[in-house]
């Protein structure tokens, strides 16, 4: 079963091991350490590596060499090249190369070094160091308590968002099915199968899947809630680095992790769904932090990290990309005013970074357009859609709390005593950036553009926890330097968490589904049992195509009556499966055919907006299943009993298994495929 402990343990381990290898361990080998702040270094590496992964993957897809070994090989060569350059820069003495790694390998090959005698003391030493560090951390009082509080918040937020991912294999919302299909097309070295649309998200997941070596369905399910957790980490990271107040950061995390249901409204389900927009959102606050740091310090590494994050977002989704661009505009204006133009080079560098990122983002799309690939139909409809029936958004208490925090933060930034002219830059930037986001959200209705009206909600809702956290920081500053200030802050964060749990008791997010859990679980069962064989799944539902297409086995999909070929219109039930009407030789299809028939049509809730689009399909399915019953009865009367059996059956679903024993024709076709 999908939600069994061992199944989830296996796939979660593979998924997070691939994430750890690609986005934590590998970048440590490639990118230089520029700060002693481990979290900042890790996040900078994450942004840089995400863009590097996308750049390598896009290139390999374009030259039709996108395979696990090619991706791993390119990244390994980059890591080795960087290693060699570093060692050359760290010579032990003039004219002497530091080739200790090569020497160690030769010594080991010659038996001069024994792994046990080398590794065991190293592990013992590291274990003792970790033990002493843990003891000193546990004795740190409020710091340790803040860590525990953060762990509790992350735990509650993870339960709310990961519950559906580990209990239901069904892709969430309509976007999940599209993403699954595009992931599998990317693995088959095809971009934009349905038209031009930013493909960075799907390419990123396809690369993760190559290293995780699991069905793409699992990667898709896990990455959605993980994106939400990274957004929450963005609040903690930016607030603690700009204010040094862990309590303020914990309050922001609580607002997003526990209270989102109160102000995200219909968009709340997106936090547990796999969406390219939310993937881009996970980069936004990290990226803007590094841009602010560059404008304050001039460190080129922070500029590169910000550029990498911006470019990665630009390749994945245009909405968060434009949002970052808006932040860069505010940052340029504020920096120029605060420095009176005396540090204009940083302004120029930031502007150039924005231009370069725009070029990177549009390059794959421009190349596709040059090859006459049309724009994805859904994009053109959404962007051009106009509605004049919208009203000004109705504000809830959390909106007012965020607006009050904007005013409070801006006033504090104006009166704040600073040692340097750029010390007030983070506060001013956040206040104006979030204020402009609210203006888009509130007054965007006057544009009558659906894309702005709908997507600006996501931007504003995502901004609320950040600005409330910054507002809490200002309130804490009013306490002055009293001795128990840290204790008061920790108590306030605890009270906010306790009150939030009382107001909004944690319960899992369950996004709407277009397919039943049983159907997808049986698909996974088929892929497991027939991993080394070809098989064909027949179903009238369009959702089955992204499931079966490009699976780890050799799956393919066929419709019942729509499309060409289709089971009921083209194939004779009285002959060996599957043989076309009027022919004697069976078609070149798999020997194992699984026909899905719903006894009770699974339907999305009528409360969901997408129901009106799906309802006509449900009526069509009823007619097709009636015709299927007649086809199956004829097949049962004509074929040997062992060639048509019931693979699975319950009250809602039955799956027929048609089997064709291998014959001379199958072997001849297989030989032709091999030699062609």
From TrEMBL:
TM helices/strands, residue ranges: 12-31, 43-62, 144-163, 219-237, 249-267, 279-295, 315-338, 350-375, 395-415, 427-447, 459-476
Domain of life: Bacteria
Transmembrane found in the keyword field: yes
Keyword S-adenosyl-L-methionine found: no
Record's protein name: Glycosyltransferase RgtA/B/C/D-like domain-containing protein
Keywords tagged on the record: Membrane, Transmembrane, Transmembrane helix
